[in-house]
Design a protein that fits this description.
Helices cover about 45% and strands about 10% of the residues. By secondary structure, it is of the alpha+beta class. The protein has 2 domains: about 110 residues, Urocanase like domains (Rossmann fold); about 230 residues, Urocanase fold, CATH 3.40.1770.10.
């Protein structure tokens, strides 16, 4: 595999590939259009220096240039997709801002975008609907040897869970085991001796319990702080990214994030937060976050089981109410695994009768 970096403007690349008839199988973007007027997107045909000067001295003209560039950007993508390119939006507001600029990105109904976000195509049905999302931990000791021990603990837990995991999530389990085994080898340290892997409620709870036990018996030299990304199963309401595969209309509400953060606080989180704007822009998203300290105490064991269970299953329930097949599978499995859990399931309409 060869990776090529281009130091320039992506609009030039899309247009040049079109002119030269270079076929692109798959295209996407991670354009920072959640911050379009302050450096998140640079207009084509302007140098970096000229763009920065215009941004500071002539902001209204800069905005016009950004929107003009977005129209060109969308048009170039459309020419490629007409040739067969498969394009999906990352979710950092490219399609949203292109639509506001008058770019040709809307579907025939005038409501939906013509291209999906990658949550709709990939992360939603493969991960979020099953309860898998970015589970994080930080070794408060700051010691690499503690991080190595947590990697080994997490890997052992996942390998044990995988033995009895249903076929529907075997691939997710295998991917995470491969990831955690390769993390040390590839020196993939995030921040201060921290790690991220994708886990569902069962995985998060069992890994956290094993960490707490390791702190209690001295295997780990200091407490572990748990957290997660806002880009997860139930912590975020973001209709253009995290909740873009919830099709019942509720993706434009903030219910899930608010319920999530309140439930986390009641169930024993060390701290919680509710915030706006992360990743997709102010006014376009509500995020609920948490932190939990595992200090080896018995009460930490009680709290982690209660809180992590809610933190994930709140989102699976919401996704199941939107009639997402993977989420319906996951919440039914959770109810079978946890007798005290009762979630109302949606009534599926007979499409023939509906029509």
């Amino acid at each position: 595999m060869v990776s090529i970096a281009y130091n320039g403007n992506i609009v030039d690349v899309w247009e040049k590939f079109d002119e030269e008839d270079v076929y692109v199988d798959l295209g996407s973007d991670q354009t920072s259009l959640h911050n379009p007027w302050a450096g998140g997107y640079y207009p084509v045909d302007l140098s970096l220096g000229d763009a920065n000067t215009m941004m500071a001295e002539h902001p209204e003209l800069f905005k016009e240039k950004v929107q003009e560039s977005l129209r060109r950007h969308a048009a170039a993508v459309n020419r490629h997709t007409a040739k067969g390119t498969y394009f999906f939006d990352y979710g950092n507001a490219f399609l949203l801002e292109a639509s506001r600029a008058g770019g040709d990105v809307m579907a025939a109904d005038g409501v939906q975008f013509k291209y999906p976000s990658y949550v709709q195509d990939i992360l939603g049905p493969m991960c979020f609907d099953y309860g898998f999302g970015p589970f994080r931990w930080v070794c408060t000791s700051g010691k690499p040897e503690d991080l190595k021990k947590t990697d080994d603990i997490a890997c052992a837990v996942l390998e044990q869970i995988m033995k009895s995991a249903p076929e529907e999530i075997q691939q997710q389990m295998a991917d995470n085991i491969q990831w955690i085994k390769g993390a040390q080898e590839n020196k993939l340290v995030v921040g201060s001796q921290a790690r991220i892997l994708y886990a569902d409620a069962e995985g998060r709870m069992k890994i956290a319990e094993a960490f707490n036990d390791a702190v209690a018996d001295g295997t780990l030299s200091a407490p572990i702080n748990l957290g997660r990304d806002h880009h997860d199963v139930s912590g975020t309401d973001s209709p253009y990214r995290e909740t873009s595969n919830i099709y019942d209309g509720s993706s434009f509400t903030a219910d899930m994030a608010i319920q999530n953060v309140i439930g986390d606080s009641f169930r024993g989180a060390t701290w919680v937060s509710i915030h706006n704007g992360g990743g997709v822009g102010w006014g376009e998203v509500i995020n609920g976050g948490f932190g939990m300290t595992l200090d080896g105490a018995r009460d930490a064991d009680r709290r982690l089981k209660s809180m992590l269970f809610w933190d994930v299953n709140n989102g699976i329930a919401r996704r199941s109410w939107a009639r997402n097949e993977e989420a319906l599978f996951a919440i039914k499995r959770e109810m079978a695994r946890t007798p005290g859990l009762t979630v109302t399931l949606p009534n599926i309409v007979d499409e023939d009768l509906f029509e």
